[in-house]
Write a structure and sequence with these properties.
Elements (H helix, E strand, L loop, with lengths): L1 E6 L8 E7 L6 E9 L3 H8 L8 E2 L4 E8 L11 E4 L9 H4 L22 E3 L2 E2 L1 E2 L9 E5 L3 E4 L5 H4 L5 H12 L1
Parallel strand pairs: 4-9
Antiparallel strand pairs: 1-2, 2-7, 3-5, 3-10, 5-6, 6-11, 7-8
Length: 178
């Protein structure tokens, strides 16, 4: 399916709105219609070259939206659910996950498609890197189920978007510093 996205290709060059191809959800994947996304300082640092990473990419990692489709084996959300997405994906199988520390997951790569496989996002067949495994500066996100958290439908999505990074960063800083 097609979607519009803000694509980053080069330091010092503005993001460009481009049409991207979003694949269908596979096992453990969730397709989200992006409703809102914050702009994190990490996105700005990346665009200025202070954080290095592969390009082209679609930035954005503070999103909220509505589930549009789910792949096989998805159990935590259903079509129509309101969700936030966050960068704290976890495999649920490694030693850290099994000891209740998914934030230290050692098997996070299992949440991504294998190299050489059809990409989740592409432009004219060229794979687009998912910034922070999300790429939320896009009308739709295709992500692993463990990156998605269901929220109450009455929470405004433009406010909920901040929970995935801004709020958790602030809370983490306060708790870890206090």
């Amino acid at each position: 399916m097609k979607a519009q996205a803000a694509v980053f290709r080069e330091v010092g060059v503005d993001l460009a709105i481009e049409e991207v191809d979003i694949d269908e959800p596979r096992a453990n994947e969730v397709l989200i219609n992006t409703s809102a996304c914050g702009v994190c300082h990490s996105d700005v640092h990346f665009a200025k070259g202070a954080i290095l990473g592969p390009v082209p990419t679609i930035p954005g990692h503070e999103p909220a939206g509505i589930v549009e489709a789910v792949g096989e084996d998805v159990t935590s959300v259903a079509v129509g659910d309101h969700v936030i997405a966050c960068t704290s994906m976890f495999c649920g199988k490694c030693k850290q996950c099994l000891q209740g520390r998914p934030h230290l997951c050692m098997g996070r790569r299992q949440c991504q498609r294998p190299k050489g496989d059809t990409p989740r996002i592409a432009i004219n067949g060229e794979a687009i890197t998912q910034f922070a495994d999300l790429s939320a500066f896009c009308e739709k996100m295709l992500v692993h189920e463990s990156a998605v958290v269901k929220i109450d439908d009455d929470i405004p999505l433009d406010r909920a978007a901040l929970v995935g990074c801004a709020v958790t960063t602030g809370v983490g800083a306060a708790l870890n510093t206090a």
